[in-house]
Amino acid sequence: MSLRRTVGLSLGLVLPLLTGGCGGSSGEGGQAGGASSRDASRPVVFVGFDASAPLVQALEQNKLQGIIVQNPYLMGQLGVKTLVKHLEKETVEPNISTGETLVTPDNMRQPDIASLIHPVKAENRAEASLSSTKTKKWRVMVIPKGTTHEFWMTIHAGALKAAQDLGNVEVIWQGPQKEDDRLQQIQLVQNAIAAGVDGIVLAPLDAKALVKPVEDAIAKGIPVVIIDSGLESKKIVSYVATDNYHGGVLAARRLGELLKGEGKIILLRYAVGSESTEQRERGFTDTIRSEFPKLVYLSDSEYSGATSDTAQQKSQSLVTRYRGQVDGIFCCNESSTFGMLRALEGAGMLASRR
Question: Which of 14, 63, 74, 215 could be stapled to 350 by a disulfide with Cβ–Cβ 3.0 to 4.6 Å?
């Protein structure tokens, strides 16, 4: 056989593999990759999670086709009220759902929806401190995952509303500045134990890393209510949260229906160990698999990180890599959605109506 014929046969076998011509999938997440016949001028369908002013504006402009919103104001209220109820020897439910809602450009002006996307917020400041004199019957420390996202500002407002309603509890609000600082959150729990607070309301950064400090608090007679994101402990008083798995289901159905069940998609995850977002991701991937089998992933293994800046950097990398191929995108929290929004805006890949 001539050298020319040998090279020709080799290229004939190799090139289809490189371009996806032999079928199958080779994307970053073990799914679809390679070239696509997608019209690169057609806007990407984009679904996110949580509300903030820029995301609501993007929804109004149809740059976002849906966001799944929680009720952090109610979550903050019920976290504190459930803890005080327990302190006063009343029975409480072990699991309390605060609801999740799909918001679209079409329903966002309904009064019940508007209250969810324009919630009350509190400034990131402590109304009391661990070192100050106790002024109420109960002193409760509320420890969020972070203090910069609007979601936590609304949790804070809800906690203060509970204190106002009850009249016999003071709320100490302290949390990490960034949502990846597990050590600082552990230290805050330890500080609460040392100060002898009456109870703790905690949104754990990590479902496993916070177990020991929480159970140390409980062993010293300080009850703990968990909000927002689960903890792998059976000793807590109650878990007050969104049904995050169902939130992921709602996002998958919105994306799948808008894409008419076919296309290439990206799932941008948030952070390893964050139970709430991991549940959303699982609800999304389970639903895509069972209800929209013709939707395939270009990427489903990348993480945005704790801030909108890291999310934007990761999103820009994905957008550059899959421009002209991606049909739909889901991001599972406020900062990842905002980071992806900025990357897609910069690339001119979103619909817009003004």
Answer: 63
How does pLDDT run across 137-189, given as a tens digit for each residue? 999 999 999 998 889 999 999 999 999 999 999 999 999 988 999 999 999 99
E strands along the chain, which residues? Answer: 45-49, 66-69, 95-97, 101-103, 138-143, 169-173, 199-202, 224-227, 238-241, 263-269, 295-303, 328-331
Six-digit token string for 76? 């903050």
Q: What is the pTM of this model?
A: 0.84
Query: Same domain for 79 and 58?
Result: no
User: Based on the structure, what is the number of domains in the chain?
Assistant: 2
Q: How many CA atoms lie within 13 A of 163 on its CB side?
A: 23
Alpha-carbon distance of 201 to 152, in angstroms, equals 13
Q: Are residues 103 and 192 in the same domain?
A: yes
d(CA 189, CA 183): 10
Strand pairing of 224-227 and 199-202? Answer: parallel
Write out the residue range of the structural domain in which residue 266 sits. 33-68+244-347
Do 230 and 81 have their domain in common?
yes
| Type of residue found at 82 | T
Q: With respect to residue 282, please indicate whether it lies within any of the assigned structural domains.
A: yes
